Amino acid sequence: MIRWFVPLMLATAVAACRAEPRSDGSDQSGPLPGDSSAAASPELVDTSAVLAVTAPAAGAVWEEGGTYVIRWVPNPTNTVGVSVAVGGKDRGHLALGLAPGTDSLCWTIPEGFVSGFGPSRSDAVRIRIEDSTDPARSSVSDTFSIIAAGS
Question: Using an 8 Å Cβ cutoff, are 31 and 37 in contact?
Fold first, then answer.
């Protein structure tokens, strides 16, 4: 039996995400999606790295049913969208129109996101962050894995 899942996350699921430490050791999760107070000040933004995906890291292993933080260097002026692909196949948007300056999104991976299509894992998952006004301005994560719950 094939089960279809819509990966679009609702704001209620985002609020339940716990902050994970950043690479600098701080435990700040950054602004939540849709937080209009999240605009970054221009002097703090490295414009050469706008939209660079910083998490998940290459080789990370995430489990269906788990909640994880997707992070990127924020775009200070435009809204962004977040999508996911598995094995090079687009699996849809996780969020659209996130406020300028937003740098993270909590994603609860639906059970069956990978395993509902047969395999118990995929080692070819990528996250894409794109500028909502210019989709050519985007960043794609390194590949990581999603495994079936309990694997």
Answer: yes
pLDDT in tens, 73-86: 988 889 999 999 99
User: For residue 21, what are its two tokens?
Assistant: 């430490």
The DSSP letter of residue 40 is: P
The C-alpha atoms of residue 70 and residue 125 are separated, in whole angstroms, by 13
Rounded to whole angstroms, the Cα distance separating 123 from 65 reads: 17
Q: What is the CATH class of 11-147?
A: mainly beta
> What residue ranges do the domains of the chain occupy?
11-147
d(CA 128, CA 146): 16
Rounded to two decimals, what is the model's pTM? 0.70
